[in-house]
Amino acid sequence: MKQHSLELGTDAAVEAAEASPAAKASWKDFVQLTKPGIVFSNSLAVLGGFWVASKWQIDWALLLYTIVGAALVMGASCVLNNYLDRDFDVKMARTKNRPLPAGKLSPQVVLVYGIMLGILGLALLWFGATPISAMLGLIGMFLYVWVYTAWFKRTSVWSTFVGSFAGAMPPIIGYCAVTPQLDAGALILYSFLFLWQPPHFWALGIRRLEEYRAAGYPLLPVVKGTYITKMSIIRYVVLLVPVSLTLYLFGYVGLVYFFVAAIMGLLWVFLALKGFKAEDEEMWAKKMFIFSVNYLTLLLIVMIINTAQG
Questions:
Q1: Which structural domain range is residue 275 located in?
Q2: What is the domain count for the chain?
């Protein structure tokens, strides 16, 4: 009875949010819909892929088209993610104040906004960079919006794994804007970001476990528990270490990157192992999440600085 009342209250909140006028909206709400933090970090991944392929022979106009186009495509994906997730967002403390569940914008406006950003971003990649970079952007959008958000996120414990196929696109969009082919460098970059995502997101899932459970997301820690999730995290982080080092072994980056990647990777493995003895799982998960963000940011910056010269 209590659960039924909660669902009725949630449905009423969703209906009230969608019926609210959009007059309260500001430009900041439109920016927030794009999830600027995610767009920034993924744009850094685009830049990393671009720089590795360029080998310091930078075409600045091409770089501008690539970064802006990719950022618009990623922003569009996040806007459409907000559109599809509005019924779940209203149930979670972390997301209930977003523009859609808060009633600041109507779903129709958000849908049109997301589609327009996507079209503009894909056009910039197609005409300003390369057709293959635009196609990769389109594939990434499709996987993230329709396969991950609309399907697996709501129905399957495999959602994070499936979402990683889309989330790993940014570096190869940048790479293929310079080198229009999926060679070894592109595949290594893709594998690197693919393996990084599940442990990053599962750490957030453990930290916000009760929120995800209350919202009804079949996330791995919700369905299988934190022990199974920690085991899965270990598998990905351990595999990520050698994959991250192959960029050096194939001659794409220098020795500085090799040592930074090795040290940071081993630190992440150590921190992940500590999770099995953690008395405060939420605090451990918070540290894991923050470390994962810093790990990716640092390695991308070092990757750019220490890219092998052509």
A1: 183-310
A2: 2
